[in-house]
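Translate sequence into structure tokens.
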Amino acid sequence: MAIVLSSALVLSAPTDPTGPNAPAIGWRNIVAAGGIEADSEADGYPVTNLANPSTAPQASWRSASTAEQFVTVATSGGDAIDYVGIARHNFGSAGINISIEAADPDNPGDWIEIFAAVVLAGDGPAVLRFEPTYATAIRLRLIPPGAVPPRAAVLYVGQLLRLPRGLQAGLVPLAFAASDEVVSAKAESGDFLGRIVINRSLKSAVSVRYLPYDWFRANMGPFARAARTIPFFFAWAPADYPDDAGYAWLDGDIRPTLERTSAGIVAHVDISMMALAL
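Result follows.
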């Protein structure tokens, strides 16, 4: 699991509540089956599968090439985008060099690099962040170093929701939030014989307190409604703990409770989630 900051990203002061270490949720996604193309597709694994939030292997995109290649996503150009989320991929283990480019608005046919090339540390969910960009298209540039073609199951492109307040004590980071079902075996003598994991999952919950209610309605309300049916990328402290990002889905509805304070009406929010386990 990783969240990677572009080397071109301007980091705000640590006290900025919407700075690089603010809890971030990647739920807005403009990737659609009719607006994504790839230079290469293996039979039965079209790039349009990346528009499906499922991480099942049969729902993934697989390239048939180990040459330099691009995955291109059309955008409206009218809304800013600042992240790309990738889940159930092999970019880390295959050592695939990945960068992100945006269509040059002043020179049709040319592209501008907005996220410098990087090799991910592993195959866990990754969030690639960059300065807010307006473009009619962006593309992932993939350069495999060997004989293993790239593959991925989920691709999100959009604008992150960054919380204006930190999280309360008690958070279990998704990287360590294993909630597995395990069967243990032992001999009649009491000796340990082994353990079998029959269901592997991650489960955690976060609490956010004293969110201005007007901010909640305008920003988190749409997420609360959308997340009833769609997964999202989540990072609780993306700058300090980049490997704690995850691809998650709600384990219960988001139901804000309100309190009237001297500063106005505030909302307290609890988010229970399950996440992709690799």
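Note: The radius of gyration is 20 Å.
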